[in-house]
Amino acid sequence: MPKTKEEWKVYKNIFSDFSLRNLFKLSSQGHFEELQSPISIGKEANIFTAVKEDGKLIIVKIYRLENCNFNKMYDYIRADLRYPDLKKNRRQVVFAWTHREYRNLLIAREVIKVPTPIAVKDNILLMEFIGDNEPASRLKDDIPKDVEEFFDQVISNMKKLYKAGLIHGDLSDFNILNYHQKPVFIDFSQGTTTDSPNADELIERDVRNVCNFFKRYIEVDEEETLEKIKN
User: Does the residue 169 lie in any domain?
Assistant: First the structure.
């Protein structure tokens, strides 16, 4: 059975009252029963696993309302043509940031493997759990058996995203999972459309970050890689 509102108070020292209310609403809608364990506690967001009634896990990503760098968020999101009327208001920027990740995942899941988005509520995003009993490892912590093949798959995914009109915007070995020797892209909050004014800057940075990681293991050419993705 889902937790009662009183039972959610066990999390009171971890989350703001606002986030607690949203977590309770999402739980009451049947998305999950309770939070299980933290995966990542960061300056921008806290990420937890949560268990559903059938025992399966999902991911709960809770963006911080008070401690996040909302000025940096605003600088990124105001260049996104999908948010032309966004005002520089902390709460509204964080909500838009969360919604943008949900929106980007909906686009990305049509062409590559990403966590399927389940629901979004203000500063909270629910997503598919990627892993078996434990969350899948990040690329930085789990070097593929065939590095060259994995690199080719990553570039293929970047190309598919680009053709779908989307750029990840913050791609690196920190937000690519190695799941059964296949790449899964995560953390799409900085993702933007290819017609945004900063699109070239972001795709070039993504390529640079990815190439810099793989250069430790194989020979890669940054310019050729960028050309391959954009054409």
Answer: yes
Of 11, 31, 32, 30, the C-alpha closest to 21 is 11
Judge if 118 and 173 occupy the same domain.
Answer: no
pLDDT in tens, 170-228: 999 999 999 999 999 999 999 999 999 999 999 999 999 999 999 999 999 999 999 99
- Single pTM value for the model: 0.93
Residue 146 annotated to the active site: no
Is 170 one of the catalytic residues? yes
Helices (H), 6-146: 17-28, 70-77, 90-108
Q: Contact, 4 vs 28, CB < 8 A?
A: no
Q: Which of 229, 188, 196, 197 is closest to 210 using CA atoms? A: 229
From the candidates 187, 195, 206, 221, give the one annotated as an active-site residue.
187
Catalytically annotated residue among 152, 170, 206, 221: 170
Residues 219 and 180 in one domain: yes
Give a yes or no: residue 1 inside a domain. no
Residue 115 and residue 64 share a domain? yes
**Using one digit for the tens of pLDDT, what is the confidence trace for 76-106?**
899 899 999 999 999 999 999 999 999 999 9
pLDDT at 46 over 60: yes
CATH number at residue 13: 3.30.200.20
> In angstroms, rounded to a whole number, what is the distance separating the alpha carbons of residues 141 and 99?
29
